[in-house]
């Protein structure tokens, strides 16, 4: 059994959960060949990501000429399969939000897999995210007959189901992974009833770097940490407004935003406008060790997202004994249990965010510690990456 992973960009700062999954599978005796469609545009700051980069085959490294050569070679050597793949590409492309030209590029990328990497004798491909990387595997399946599966995270896949041909991808896949019960329910909506048995839940997980981390007491000074790309869907902009209201009511606390992204400048401008320079800190991108440090400096992690799958940063925070404030969306309520491991607020509500942060600031630290310990237990039971990788291994083995 030779398994290969294909991801649009790998390694990548925000894809540490994929790295953990691959390494956990290899520790279980399943060697993984890594493919990425393109190189990551962001700087890699974590040593583990740099090590993964050296193991990864980048498809677009062949260049435009290489794509065209593979496209033509497969057309000549496998005309019947190539024509079938071309017809499927046109069908998908005409309904796609990305257009026919880009989908023809995906067909060329699939041809590269067939023509340039057939010597690797891959028996099964797995993709993360049901978007373009899975489109490439769908077309590769038509061209080569090699089976594929994929993990759906959301929210992007559920926002444009028809545009990414998700029902077609599910129909032709060996199996499809959802990362939460919520995700599984959404996949049920978009596949035929006879394919429901294909939908399996395999959680994203954390490794021993978090699960075996010795418990560290909470700091006495109130501090919130928010982890993730600075973007519209993560809701950090509203978090600055909430922090302003709390400071205006006389609350003294620290808020650390760990990450970077397209919304950094507007957030910085908002911090300056509300005179929060002494309250809010933006760290930029951080390594795993730095993420752990920032989590441990906090009492509570806050992630006021508008759209998610089930964020790994929630698992990481709970694993280190820090309860979480987040929103009533997607798979988050399956892990953040109000009154036990954290608090949930309606997405987009600054008022609810202010009220909940105020509750945290007024809660005795002993109660916060107890909630953190419940979080540790939840993550160990449901998000141990070795345990989840074992489920994937069994699924891979069931194919052949």
Automatic annotation (TrEMBL):
Read off the Pfam families from this record: Glycos_transf_1
Family matches, as PANTHER family = SULFOQUINOVOSYL TRANSFERASE SQD2, TEICHURONIC ACID BIOSYNTHESIS GLYCOSYLTRANSFERASE TUAC-RELATED
What InterPro entries does this protein map onto?
Glyco_trans_1 (IPR001296), Glycosyltransferase_grp1 (IPR050194)
Task: Identify the species of origin.
Answer: Crocosphaera subtropica (strain ATCC 51142 / BH68) (Cyanothece sp. (strain ATCC 51142))
Name it: Glycosyl transferase, group 1
Q: What SUPFAM superfamilies does this protein's entry cite?
A: UDP-Glycosyltransferase/glycogen phosphorylase
Which GO terms of the molecular function aspect are on file? glycosyltransferase activity
Domain Glycosyl transferase family, by residue range, is 215-376
Q: Does the keyword Transferase apply?
A: yes
Reply yes or no: does the keyword Electron transport apply.
no
Sorted alphabetically, the keyword list is:
Transferase
